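Lecture notes, continued. The same structure-token format from the folding unit now serves as the input rather than the output. Read the line below as a description of shape only.
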């Protein structure tokens, strides 16, 4: 949902104040409405557990809201510069400053309802909401809302992990590494050797095990193997499913299934990344071996 403010809303009259308030709170009101419509998910945080934490959680800096551009990545999430946020906030803050003098409709809601309603918002909405005022910022930074969003957008796995910097940062870090991982497949589709060369960490310990079963060790050897693959292999279309990421401070690993042909079963793949000089680099790629008799024979000949 897009929230836009125009300078023409001068906020001089009481009436325009109310309109601005309604526009700002629309996403939340819709969420509250859906709260009573949608079936209750068992993993969604309950108001009882979230209300207590709301007070104690520190508000972390809001991470990038540009869903398609945050692959620039940050190891702990939430530490990325709030440049985009500032641009939006500049517009919003004028309106908010005026609004805070009047009574906010949000303040009329029970805090438990607020927190629970936030767990139904999507990523951009939660980001936008956190920019409206300090109270909404606090509510939108609630860890349980971000944990619920993580479960909704990524996986119900990792339910028991306790991210050191909270679920908001973990959500951002996960989103970043999944975008980086998607780039890996874009590079293969484009068959771009320069892009693949930048994608890998230039180190002697990086390793790559292709679907052919061939094993390469060291940066130069790995990049040469991709050069050969891009030169020889036919253009293939594939679908990537079941992407699961685990992100630690400066290391992340991603598992996935890649279907070249839906009938032949997936290649099971693992990518391991390290964080250096402000971005993620691939240090290990492992694909399960293609289960075709001819390929197996070819490999035996090569390796014997
Ligand atoms: C946001 O993403 C778009 C692509 O959808 C990109 O063109 C734009 O530069 C990004 N903005 C920032 C501030 O990174
Ligand atoms: C990948 O794993 C699935 C089980 O999840 C298995 O059925 C399939 O054969 C595996 N693919 C390869 C190429 O080993």
């Amino acid at each position: 949902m897009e929230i836009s403010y125009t300078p023409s809303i001068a906020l001089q009259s009481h009436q325009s104040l109310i309109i601005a308030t309604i526009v700002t709170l629309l996403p939340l009101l819709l969420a509250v409405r859906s709260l009573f419509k949608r079936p209750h998910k068992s993993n969604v945080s309950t108001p009882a557990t979230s209300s207590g934490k709301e007070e104690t959680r520190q508000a972390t800096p809001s991470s990038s809201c540009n869903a398609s551009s945050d692959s620039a990545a940050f190891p702990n999430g939430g530490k990325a510069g709030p440049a985009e946020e500032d641009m939006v906030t500049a517009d919003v803050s004028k309106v908010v400053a005026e609004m805070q003098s009047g009574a906010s409709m949000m303040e009329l809601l029970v805090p438990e309802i607020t927190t629970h309603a936030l767990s139904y918002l999507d990523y951009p909405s939660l980001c936008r909401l956190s920019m409206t005022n300090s109270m909404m910022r606090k509510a939108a930074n609630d860890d349980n809302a971000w944990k619920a969003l993580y479960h909704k957008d990524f996986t119900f796995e990792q339910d028991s992990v306790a991210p050191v910097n909270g679920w908001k940062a973990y959500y951002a870090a996960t989103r970043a590494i999944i975008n980086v991982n998607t780039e890996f497949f874009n590079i293969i589709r484009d068959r771009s050797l320069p892009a693949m060369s930048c994608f890998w960490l230039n180190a002697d310990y990086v390793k790559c095990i292709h679907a052919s079963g061939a094993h390469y060790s060291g940066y130069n050897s790995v990049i040469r193997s991709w050069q050969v693959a891009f030169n020889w292999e036919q253009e293939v279309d594939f679908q990537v499913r079941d992407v699961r990421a685990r992100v630690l401070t400066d290391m992340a690993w991603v598992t996935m299934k890649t279907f070249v042909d839906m009938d032949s079963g997936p290649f099971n793949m693992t990518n391991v990344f390290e964080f250096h000089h402000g971005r993620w680099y691939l240090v290990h790629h492992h694909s399960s071996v293609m289960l075709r008799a001819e390929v197996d024979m070819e490999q035996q000949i090569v390796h014997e």
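Point for the exam: The longest helix spans residues 166-190.
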